[in-house]
Amino acid sequence: MGASGHLAEDLVPILSRLPRDIALIALIADPTGEVEVLLQDFTLLNPADHKMMPFLPSDAQNIANEELRTRFRHLDLRRQPLTNNLRRRSRVAQAMRFLEVETPVLLKSTPEGAREFLVPTRLVQQNDNGEKVPQFYSLAQSPQQPKQLLICSGAVDKYFQIARCFRDEDGRKDRQPEFTQVDMEMAFVSWGDKSVAIDAADGWRIGGQEVRRTVEVLLRRVWTTLEDESADLTLRFPVMTYAEAMDRFGSDKPDTRFGLEISNMTPLLPKDARDNVLSERDIIECIVVRGADKAFTEASKAYQAERLGAVEAIRVTEDNLTSWLHNSAILQTMPISIPESTESSFLNEKLRINSGDCVWLSRRKATAEGGATALGKVRLHIAQLAEELGTYTPPSKPHFLWVTEFPLFTRADDDKDFLAKGRWSSTHHPFTAPMWQDVEKLHNGDFASIRGQHYDLVLNGVEIGGGSVRIHDPNMQEHIFTDVLQLTETEKASFNHLLHALRCGAPPHGGIALGFDRIMAMLCGTDTIRDVIAFPKTGAGTDAFFKSPSTVNDDVLAQYGIKTI
């Protein structure tokens, strides 16, 4: 309540003038308008009814809970941090633009990714029995097929779009059922074969260098737009293969801001133990938390009380310095035993283990699968606990990383199993090209070891983008549909338009999609993308403000040939 009896939420137009010593150039340099003015007059145009105000957005000391703020999002948006986030979002979007083409949002349902949102129409079609069957659109999961077809058409050689995308996924802090991505595609990208020079010196052994360079320039421009001089982005972002990321960090999106790297200790084990592990195609790996590392020691101790069952933590002391290996529960589960006389000195020397250290152990398959290993999860939990305890503060400088050479095919996970039905599934999507070194494996059935020309961009341990070099050979694309993914003729028919375009002289092409909401959340220093979206959904996928989704009465459903059962 102000001195005049007005609420801070009242709408009060003011008449003012600039002091004479404020130059016009100052306003141009500071377009936010944050300059002091001389008040001449004001009018109470539309007073806020304080009885109707569930909370005061202007009260920064008493912020309402998230559930209440979500229900009254129009008031929540008055808070300065959210207002600033939306303005920053607009500035970043402007900095990213080049040749922009809009693609359809209403598309046909295809078995290529996550669950889709279906949109009923009043259109009907007769089936073979003469029955009227309702027709449905699918909201675009991404502009993947339209943008590829756009490049195949030859109308443009590069494309960009701030695209709205829709996926029927479970809600999480970094996911929304509708989201925004910076989508791009370009023709005549390199294919990473022997005839083209590749950036092998820095680990980029696939095609798509043109996409890489474009994204790196774009993100440097974004940070420059925000005048974040402390970022000091490198000219080229570092590169790491999927296999290396899983081996060293236990994650396909490594957070490289801190150490705690994973070591494969299998070669250092006694011969009998080593042979047993290798015969099962397993490895034993470890993380050593140094006792002298004050940032993570206390967090490691705290986490031991709630550790996962797949890992083991051994605290090394003067008493067990030469015997901790023999006492390992993971090694004791083997059919062979580690002799009590076996000393740990060799391991201690190679891994630089000393009294006061904590050794985290895990056994896993030698070929990593999925997005994280057991020790990879431990590593992140320790860092998170250390941050909560105040012993570790992540560096402010952004740590970008390209992760490449993902497996091209995997057995379907829970999200895609309803589509794949136990068959092989594309790790990224079925249009990703294999590395040229692995093309022969497509024909001899060695699908598990084929690497794709797929690249993810990671920032501070968060995946902010993913893309690939596409298949432009129609025969290879059809072979993958038919012989690898084993799509039915009905499922393959969903891609006939793409196969036809590839047979009409399509150029090599590739692209990427950057998660705009995730990038903005990180730029704005928030843990949830809901803080950078004007009207977000809740974690459950509902909208507490607009009260959606909602039920529809039977009369309306009947217009679309739908009835409830």
Describe the fold and architecture.
The chain has 565 residues and is α+β, with helices and mostly antiparallel strands. The protein has three domains: 53 residues, no CATH class; 310 residues, BirA Bifunctional Protein, domain 2; 132 residues, Gyrase A, domain 2 (2-Layer Sandwich). Helix content is 28%, strand content 19%. The strands form five sheets. The protein has a seven-stranded mixed beta sheet. α4 crosses α6, α5 runs parallel beside α17 and α9 packs across α12. The longest helix is centred in the first third of the chain and has 17 residues. The radius of gyration is 28 Å and the shape is globular. 32% of the residues are buried. The mean pLDDT is 86. Pfam families: tRNA-synt_2. Keywords: Aminoacyl-tRNA synthetase, ATP-binding, Ligase, Nucleotide-binding, Protein biosynthesis. Belongs to the class-II aminoacyl-tRNA synthetase family. Type 1 subfamily. InterPro entries: Aa-tRNA-synt_II, aa-tRNA-synth_II, aa-tRNA-synth_II/BPL/LPL, Asp-tRNA-ligase_1, Asp/Asn-tRNA-synth_IIb, GAD-like_sf. It comes from Phellinidium pouzarii.
Secondary structure: number of strands: 18
Largest sheet: 7 strands, mixed
CATH architecture tag of the largest domain: 2-Layer Sandwich
Question: What is the radius of gyration?
Answer: 28 Å
**What fraction, in percent, of the residue positions are helical?**
25-40%
Helix/strand structural class: alpha+beta
Number of helices: 19
Summed over residues and divided by their number, the pLDDT gives a mean of 86
Name the CATH class of the largest domain.
Answer: Alpha Beta
The CATH homologous superfamily of the largest domain: Bira Bifunctional Protein, Domain 2
Strand content: 15-25%
